[in-house]
Amino acid sequence: MSQKLISILIPMHNEEGNVDLVYSEVKAVCEEIKSERGYDYEILFVNDGSTDRTLEKLKTLKEKDGRIRILNMDRNRGEAAGLTAGFQLAKGDFIFTMDGDGQNDPRYFKELLLKLEEGYLVATGYRLKRKEPLLTRRIPSFIANRIIAIVTGVKVRDNGCSLKGYVAEIPKRVQIPHGFHRFLPALFGVKNEEVAEIPVLDRKRYWGRSHYGLKRTVEVLRELITFPFLKRSVFYEKFFKVWSILHVCALFPVGISLILKPGLIKGSLFFALFLGALVSYVIHKNLKRFNLAQREGVFKVEDL
């Protein structure tokens, strides 16, 4: 019987100051898991178009450690593409993810692994005592997580926590377009009872500045209105294209009538048609992106 394997997936973009710390912590935990639980391991670093010395430092580590794999993106494609590349190319029976900024403590991989061994398909952390600004990160994150839980039906408390573990076949189901990684694990079609959550302590970024800002909340809402239509994405891509065109066509006569003879009812109708056209167009464009991703993929990497 062959030895079981775990894959640790770490996307990185301009994290040269965090490479050594992240590697040393992950390596230590993986060695403990190997000793205590008998799992061999691989560490997949996805270099997402870094313009600093991140790739150079990763190559130096790989020369010393044969368990390191470097997936080098052809350009900066974003976290969704980086995760997809790692998920598709990972060789492990279980796949674990974390950020490359030092905020995630890899010691929690042990607890996530226990949950997966119990039979859960996904295990995810939820952050306690977050070391981030209240107004620009924590409050928007709280609101977004509640909305995501309502829309997707998967009541994960902290979708933004990168400390997650998967039975390997689960994240291989979908090519993740830009922005849709914020709906993991719901995007993979898992049910509430198939997901386990564990509390994890948050840490301050070790080096550098965050790549995220307040606009992320707006992007979450933009993509989230598309989520209910993903199961029949090809049909609904066409449906919302036609629906948006019909709304635009209806806008012209109502708009002309409003100009000639203003009125509250006409103004309300014009606004409703405009809003309907806008929302339909956004959903159509998002579904088009999603379907294109499934056909053509979202990443191009070299396995160094």
TrEMBL record:
GO terms for cellular component: plasma membrane. One of its GO terms (molecular function) is undecaprenyl-phosphate 4-deoxy-4-formamido-L-arabinose transferase activity. Residues 7-148 form the Glycosyltransferase 2-like domain. It comes from the Bacteria. CDD domains: DPM1_like_bac. SUPFAM superfamilies: Nucleotide-diphospho-sugar transferases. The keyword Transmembrane helix applies. The chain crosses the membrane at residues 239-259, 265-283. PANTHER family: UNDECAPRENYL-PHOSPHATE 4-DEOXY-4-FORMAMIDO-L-ARABINOSE TRANSFERASE (PTHR48090:SF3), UNDECAPRENYL-PHOSPHATE 4-DEOXY-4-FORMAMIDO-L-ARABINOSE TRANSFERASE-RELATED (PTHR48090). This is Glycosyl transferase. It comes from Caldimicrobium thiodismutans.
